[in-house]
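Data availability (excerpt). The following record was deposited with the supplementary files.
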Amino acid sequence: MNTSSPRLQNRARIAPAPDTMRFPPSTDIRSHTITIPPTEPNRTYQGLKTSENDDMNCVEILATTLSIILMVLTFPISVFICFKVVSEYERAVIFRMGRLRSGGARGPGVFFVLPCVDDYCKVDLRTVSFDVPPQEVLSKDSVTVTVDAVVYYRISDPLKSVIQVSNYSHSTRLLAATTLRNVLGTRNLSELLTERETISHTMQMSLDEATDPWGVKVERVEIKDVSLPTALQRAMAAEAEAAREARAKVIAAEGEMKSSRALKEASEIISSSPSALQLRYLQTLVNISAEKNSTIIFPLPMELLSPFISAGHNNHNCNSHKQ
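Predicted structure:
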């Protein structure tokens, strides 16, 4: 059979590759074996490196064995030592020979510990509030003010609050005082007095971002009081008093203007009707008598004196002519 024909050569090109690879007889197949390394145990918890899955050394194995033997020998009494209870609002972080035990935080309910080997820390998950000490802050417009606030926080991750920070409560208090000074230093005095909600929200976001690696969740921040210097209080009071007096004068002037217009319209109406003046006179007498005054002044109408006034003018003119 001729294998040099073009058709056979094309078939040889498109032939599929064999499923198994054949090596020459002189080749050692073991030298081509691919060694897969064992999978490294998971040593991280939400980005936090721990040694909970590491292998125990001889000392740890011996100590654990002795602890179990001691627990068995003192069984009736060891029950009260080995079983612990945490409430609904608490979690327990257990360490065995200094290493974090796998399984995360325990609780609520009953959990088991070995005597002399295991140690645990209780973490309260309830919301905690504290007062930030009054801070003297220099505002953006160079005014010194004293501000105090209230911070509400809770533990969102018990493991981080125990492993990542030594004292999460003290650290959160110090960070709150520093953040309060930093945030208020970028605001003017008018903004400090009028935009408390915005400042509180900005401070809460900054604190929450900084305490997240510690497993602390800052829920709310409230600014209690902004105290101003005494001299500045007097200056602001004088300014406010002057502004109120100016508004009072403007309002009084507007009232006088409106009252004069009303009197003008009333005089026009009364002058058009003589009886209206008499009625107004009677109404005034009624008002005076209602107050039980002992002295009543009766105004004399000028119409009654007009003949005498005109006669007096005529006599004066005659005398002047005679002279």
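Summary of structural features: The mean pLDDT is 77.
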